[in-house]
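Request: Not sure, any thoughts?
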Amino acid sequence: MTGELVREAPFDRLKQRIKRAMGPWGVFFEGFLRNPVMVGSIIPSSRYTIDKMLSRVDWNECRLFVEYGPGVGTFCRPVLEKLRRDGMLIVIDTNPMFIDYLKATIGDSRFVAINGSAADVEEIVRAHGHTHADYVLSGLPFSTLPDGVGPAIASATHRVLRPGGAFLVYQFTSRARDFMARHFKRIDAAMEFINVPPCFLYWGWKDAPQD
């Protein structure tokens, strides 16, 4: 056993050096290797995807922005740049490695990182003093999530959003729209080709009840 530990130590040190040299890409890559079903992609989203996905957010009316599966913060920093001073960004990820990384690298007082499930978004939002979210962003791979998890997340997201808010989803397959359509009657769609791989973009709007 001692000999095995001695042989493993140099390899572990080498992995840590490579990860440090790669910066956030190294953390993202390791997260993908550990749980590809939950991460969905080996490469973070492009700036074009980020800009297009966030372009329909009314930042003046956004007090709480929630993100599922933030990874290494590819969307977090652009959101914080646009978010009002009294706003809050809550990110939720099941991977503690990503959460620890985000807590260590983002010092904004408006930022909250939670190690947990997106299906529990309602409880998480209430625990941080809010009754609803204005926008929810997700890059979770709905098509590969365990049975029942995708529908549970879509349902909880619709409930937690305020009327007029939206569920922003970027995916590499069109199946996410099926999960959204059960709850969101109005869904806008687009494609972003300058991304690896190209991705589908969806905005599911929670319209106000009709009188």
